[in-house]
Amino acid sequence: MKVVIQRVSEAQVHIGNETVAAIGKGMLVLLGIETEDGEQDAQKLIKKMLALRIFDDNQGVMNISLLDIDGEMLVVSQFTLHANTKKGNRPSYIKAAKPATAIPLYNYFLQQCEQGLGKKVDSGEFGADMKVQLVNDGPVTIIIDTKNP
Question: Which CATH number applies to 2-145?
Answer without folding.
Answer: 3.50.80.10
